[in-house]
Amino acid sequence: MKRLIAWISDLRLAIGLLIVIAVASGLGTLVPQKESSALYHRVYDAEPWLGLLNGDQILALQLDHVYSSSWFLGLLTWLGLSLILCSVRRQWPALQAALRWIDYSSPRQLSKLTLAETLSSANAEGQLGQLQELLIQRGWQVQPQAHRLAARRGVSGRVGPLLVHAGLVVLMVGAAWGSLGGQRLERFLAPGNELELLNSRGQTQLTVALEGFGIERDPAGRPEQFRSQLRLQPGDPSAETALPASNREISVNHPLRFQGMTVYQADWALSAIQVQLGQSPILELPLQSFPQLGEQVWGIVLPTRPDGSNPVLLALSSEEGPITVYSAEAEILGTLVPGGSAEEIAGIPLKIAGVVPASGLLLKRDPGVPLVYAGFAIALAGGALSLIATRQLWAIAEPDQHKLHVAGLCNRNLAAFSRELPQLLAELQQG
Q1: Domain-by-domain residue ranges, the chain?
Q2: pTM of the model
Q3: How far apart are CA 333 and CA 8, in angstroms?
Q4: CATH number of the structural domain 101-154+391-430
């Protein structure tokens, strides 16, 4: 059992786990996450990922949801256990040892330390008292005894590694909690539509309605920014009257945080097209994506005969148009502009009254975020404390020999301490 605990708490194992977790996190950025199984089959069955994994294998290995997969959470648990055992077996005893005062009572013991000096002094006891005052002035903790003293500074630096381990464990707990208990919903909403979020009992927790959506484009027509005007209506089944609604605006890189939910402006699409055929009323018809025509191309197939024959395809990539009309043989029959005049297509006057864009909203609730932030803060504080060097100093006076023996140790930046100690002794002799 001791051998197993020693292996789990080995620093080399923890470093290896960190490398594996970093590689796994990279996989989560390369493979689309939490999409429908049909997407993985469509994308990777014809061309396997890295030439190795098809859609079935990606789903079997849980690469479609890396961060909430059982093997990824298992790696986090393993690393957390390794850090906890390492802290209990090494860091905590090291901290306890650093807090204990070490008493050296003979000059021979001091001579074996890394830095050791012997001063000739006619009044060794008096000079020992002056050294004590000088150390206190410089912020050292001093423990005097008969004919000797012990001093230390920077003991807080020994807390640093323990805090780093604790911060990493808290961070991993927060990440696991967010993966298991978090909620994520991505939807396209057209203006005037709304989305209801339900709690575990099926009751409306929050209603998100899209009041308006706009796309800001550069002079070349490329989208630069998307803005959505939202109305948020909290739902509380226990309240006798409806809670007041809140109107907010979100855009790319400016999400909205509301009652523990974060709403991101994630994407955009074209939802519907308003068409008038001849003298018919204006019809609002839904658009669908046509990836075979381009990355962001939407369209709709319209019949031009009462029996549904002789269809044409209306394709567009922007709410501003133009709309290109294709025949069944992929020939261009004409182009239309939203809000423009009617054009005769396949013998029928066709007019585009407008195009309705849709806002792509991403709603996330992550209960582990406070723990993740707290873990980062604790780890950063521990890293900062770890930079503090812990210095220890001992002095023994031999009045009958007219000598003052001084020695010191330092766990970090020994070169700086080796320069500081002679300066301290020189100031002591001058004083």
Answers
A1: 2-95, 101-154+391-430, 181-268+361-379, 269-360
A2: 0.63
A3: 70
A4: 3.30.310.80
Whose CA is closest to 233, among 255, 258, 212?
258
Round to whole Å and give the CA distance between 133 and 428.
Answer: 10
314: enclosing H helix or E strand: strand 312-316
DSSP for 336-402 reads E-TTS--EEETTEEEEEEEEEEEEEEEEEE-TTHHHHHHHHHHHHHHHHHHTSPPEEEEEEEETTTT
Tell me the pLDDT of the chain (431 aa) as tens digits: 677 777 777 778 888 888 888 888 888 888 887 777 888 888 888 788 887 888 888 888 888 888 878 888 888 888 888 888 888 888 888 888 878 888 888 889 888 888 888 888 888 888 888 889 999 988 899 999 888 899 999 888 888 888 988 888 888 888 888 777 777 788 888 888 888 876 666 667 788 889 989 888 888 778 888 899 998 888 765 555 556 778 889 898 899 888 778 889 988 889 999 998 878 888 889 998 887 777 788 999 888 777 777 888 899 888 888 888 888 888 888 888 888 888 888 788 888 889 999 998 988 888 888 888 899 899 999 988 888 888 999 999 888 888 889 999 888 888 888 888 888 888 888 76
Task: Supply the DSSP symbol for 282.
Answer: P
Residue partners of 427: CB distance under 8 A and separation at least 6: 134
Residue 14, SS3 per DSSP: helix
CB contact set of 109 (below 8 Å; sequence gap of 6+): none
